[in-house]
Amino acid sequence: MLKIAVLYEPSDNTAVALDPARVRHKERRRPGARRRRGVERRQKLDREEVVEALRKNGYEPFFHELRDEAALLALARTQADLVFNMVEAFAGDDAKEAHVAAFLELLDLRYTGAGPQGLFLAQDKAVAKEIFDFHHIRTPRFAVSYRGKLDHADDLEFPLIVKPASEDGSVGIDAGAVVQTLRELMERVALLQEKFDCPALIEEYIEGREIYVGVLGNDKPNALPIVELDLSKLPEGMPHIAGKEVKWEKGTEAYDLTKSAAAQGLDDPTVKRLQDTAVQVYGALKLRDYGRVDMRLTNDGRIYVIEANPNPWLAPEAELAMAAALAGRSYVQLIGQIVELALARYAA
Hints:
The protein is α+β, with helices and mostly antiparallel strands. The chain is 34% helix and 22% strand.
């Protein structure tokens, strides 16, 4: 029976904490802060769901908690045939996510999901957008600012959205992230750099539908059915973005009136363009096994890629599992397919 180590880091796999203090804790990026790719709506730990699904697939899973350096070094002694990599940080530092994958490579361990290169490329949103430009993949025009210096600057038009250049899970993004004036822009950039000490990504704000496309595979990746986060019911005057109010602040209008579901009303050519774009992004950033691409679809049919998510959230209620279900795969089948895709890579 195949033994699978489910590798997780305790700061990024806890149950949802939706109190304001927790959110502020995340934004300061102290040890223990965590992030999550996708809309946060779970109570049960996703790693527990994955272990249960692995058992139902006939594997012998066990947890390996990456709590400290000793646990990292202990990976060299694991008896696992495969590591199911659910790590998004090390010692609470999400910038080290790719380092963990690189360490698995050094140990010559087989593992699921993106390699260090794909994780690095996707995490640096500015670099990812430059790659999109190279491949003629439409993405919002952008600039990157850090401590008063512009590292990259397109000609931009307001409104703009300002976000940390290397965070996700809506960290640093709220209703105030969309700015209308130069003064608001400067204040928002200063705020983000004070909180995160990282470059600010400044993008043209694209009004449109929030589209998520999951992708599975390696040599010939396939896009899953399209999922949409419906932001149309947000309170009047609130920008239609998946900010922390939508993802974190349970009990508010923004949280309670938004949900992800199968995208409706898209004609076949538009569905194909969205799926083809997702597969193109997946390949350009060297993702593997599974991923999710976030896009905006405007009223006139233009597609803008916002970001790509390697190793996205894997709870049964997550957008990736939702898309898999739309394609006729159960959650257990989805987890089993991720394992099969990883094993096939190493057998090639």
